Amino acid sequence: MSGRQFSLTRRIVLAASVAASLGTFPAAPAATQTYPTRPVKIVVPFAPGGPTEFIIRLVADRLTGTLGQPFVIENRPGGAGGTVGAKSVASAEADGYTLLFSSPGPLVTAAAVYKNLDYDPIKSFAPIAMVIYAPQMVVVHPSLPATSLAELVDYAKRNPGKVTFGSSGYGTQPHMLGEMLKLAAGINIIHVPYRGAGQSVSDLLAGQVQMIFETTAILLPHVQGGRLRALAVAVAARSPLLPEVPTTAESGYPKLIASFWSGLLAPAGTPAPIVAKLNAAVNDILKSKEAQTGLERLSAEAKIGSPQDFAAFIAAETPRWATIASETGIKVD
User: How far apart are the first and last CA of the chain?
Assistant: First the structure.
């Protein structure tokens, strides 16, 4: 077993043991029973306008009403794939007053790409709740003469280096999907990283880049409005909101599969009663009609579960994206 494989295995075992330990804890002290007693900050490690904008604002507003203290969103973009914001939460006091709302970038893909992070994506956080889950989709600007993934690949082969694809940052899931297509199809397309999905989609709409992999939660309105052209969804089944759009497997790329997700986490060591209280409150919000209706309109779904469920999910995703990083050659020492 290689050193990297050993490290991944050790992290998975550690995550499983942490998840198991969350299941039992002593009686909560008074400070955790009365939590929160002051405003709570939720760090989003990307610029505003990303695919989680609707749901994180809904969650923050509802937590404010339910728990009686303001839950304030702080967008903190920067670093590699959202790692600046994630690091700020990892190093915060573990008292429940600084939380992280994270997508795969800071938690699983950055760890696969960057050798030296200033935090450990598994050991530095206490998962609270996975919130949103949505298919990834590949779309192009209408000026690009491609109505299918096959036509996109053909065009890119005839025009090497002339097709650019945006992403929410180097080492993020959309970047890695673009590199997977580049490798599988044998094409030369140019990556353009941004500081968040909102910025990359804005430039795609303006024609500054020609294609992108992003979640249906942010792309769907633009596709339905005719401003962008969907070529494929990167999941096993077609979207009921876009039944005419094939899957990546149907388009000849069965390994090009990924779903976007985001969830709420706290610094490691946060008292388990606080984690449990936040988990219960978030799950109640996700069961609301407003949340369900909003997510359905974006071809996304709420993921209701325990902190242990979220910890186990992250542990399972970590080696998968490490393998993809290795296959595509995406690595920064």
Answer: 21
CA atoms within 13 A of residue 232's CA, in its CB half-sphere = 24
Assigned token pair, 205? 């709409």
- Nearest Cα neighbor of 228 from 238, 239, 213, 240 is 213
Q: How confident is the model at residue 30 (pLDDT cuts 50, 70, 90)?
A: low
Query: What Rg value do the Cα atoms of the chain yield, rounded?
Result: 20
Look at residue 239 and tell me whether its pLDDT is greater than 70: yes
Residues near 198 by Cβ (< 8 Å), separated by ≥ 6? 46, 47, 48, 49, 50, 53, 218
Total-model pTM: 0.80
Structure tokens at 197: 């999905």
Per residue in 52-74, pLDDT (tens digit) is 788 899 999 999 999 999 999 99
The identity of residue 76, as a single letter, is R
Asked if 213 and 248 touch (Cβ cutoff 8 Å), the reply is: no
Span 115-143, pLDDT tens digits: 778 899 899 999 999 999 888 999 999 99
Domains of the chain: 3-133+261-328 (3.40.190.150), 135-233 (3.40.190.10)
Q: Are 189 and 178 in contact (CB under 8 A)?
A: yes
**CB distance 164 to 190 below 8 Å:** yes
What's the CA gap between 55 and 132, in Å, rounded?
8
Could you tell me how far CA 268 lies from the centroid of its own chain? 20
Distances (CA, A) of 146 to 142, 210, 230, 311: 8, 11, 10, 40
For residue 122, give the nearest of 28, 270, 18, 249 by alpha carbon: 18
| Cα–Cα distances in angstroms (integers) from residue 22 to residues 15, 236, 274, in the given order | 11, 33, 11
Alpha-carbon torsion angle 166, 168, 170, 175, nearest 10? -60
